[in-house]
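Box 3.1 — From sequence to structure: DUF1367 family protein
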Amino acid sequence: MAQLHLIKQSQGILIPATQETSDFLQSKCKLGAVLEADYKLVRNPAFHRRYFALLNLGFEYWEPTGGAISSNERRLITGYAKYLAAYGGSESALLDAAEQYLDRIAEKRAGSISLCKSFDAYRAWVIVEAGHYDAIQLPDGALKKHPRSISFASMDECEFQELYKASLDVLWRWILSRSFNSQLEVENAANQLLSFAG
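Predicted structure (token representation):
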């Protein structure tokens, strides 16, 4: 079965949106043939490109630093230091000691590993942090957050707009707020990147 992509023109006329659709209609369908189909509105490809411009902007401003200590481990250790401080002791001294301990563990774990930037890993991280993931249980019982597909077939326009907004919030919180004054400024910079690309 062929997948046809059509564009609605004035007066309800549908015309081929792709060369494949045009070829199919010209070679496989006789004049006057009736086609039956389930229709759905596809996502706006320009908005898809805008999303990737936003991701690229964040990727350009992100510099990997560490990663040998997870955010959960950091939260656990600093939480424990605060817990101890509540029972006596200087909170700032305990937090400083906790930070030194985490630095030592990170250095030991990292060893001679050099950090590199991976766009695929970064994109998956943004999607997961934006809340668009499936929780998968691994054989050892651990849960892993697996990013959902953002393909045109997997996500409709409304869900994609929600992902865009949530991704913008994630990038703002973790990366871009250090270099831009507002989210509007971020979107303007991403749009400029988009205009340079094509």
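Summary of the box: The mean pLDDT is 88.
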